[in-house]
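Shipment paperwork, digital attachment
Item: protein structure file
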Amino acid sequence: MMTQGLNAFVIGMLLFLVASGLTLIFGVLKVVNFTHGSLYMMGAYLAYYIYGITDSYVLAVIIASAGIAVFGVFLERIFFRRLYQSNFLMQLLMCYGWILVLDDLVQLMFGAEFQSMGMPSFFATAPLMIAGAPIPLFYIFLIGISFLVALAVWMLIVKTSFGSKVRAAATNTSMTGALGINTSLLYAGVFALGAGLAGLAGALAAPVRSLVPGMGFSILIESFIVTVIGGMGSIGGALVAAILIGVCRSFGSVGFPMFTEIGVFALMAVVLVLRPDGLFGKGAQR
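Attachment content:
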């Protein structure tokens, strides 16, 4: 029970890091960023590459997160900002094009075979015994750092002037611009934050996941499920939904291994029937 509960938090917190960036970008920019899974994949591969050069996992995580954030700014400034007034189909085509480009780029650089970073030497120790269950040290680190990042994102959005501008832009962009706020710069910052969170999730997952081109697709689907269950644009909703899916996956793999995938989609279906805008969507708050 203890081990499955911990696995649920590991799955849930990694999902939250990816989904929070996705829901942040949608909430402010109104762009359904289908390239988000590819940014997660690039974060994992970049961390794998940096770790191979430096043998420092901390440095690999920092550089991967920052590198993907900078790449996010490049995407937003050169490509996505031209589509803010376009219809959803144009955004979808742009995202799909970048998914193909990034998958091919990773395949050219690292090959099509599965790659493995391996456990960083600091965490390659015997599991800790907690409540009679063996818990790998890396899992504890993963949950702890994910909670700290979630707390930092929440404080950034709720307690800072940047967060106030982000919330204002998410509510009424034209009014935000009329008040003298540089919405163009704000959009770039939000996209960078969302991309950096995806890169961070990829870097944190690299030691416990197999790396292969296209690996971002599966987590992209789960991230969308998280944003739908939690409510599009809601960071708190993304956290609750990610943990719910983590619990569903972790305990479902033991109790109903043949129906784990079905259980996740069934959870989404139930939430949509009861609350069409998600648990913390705007409609749910009325």
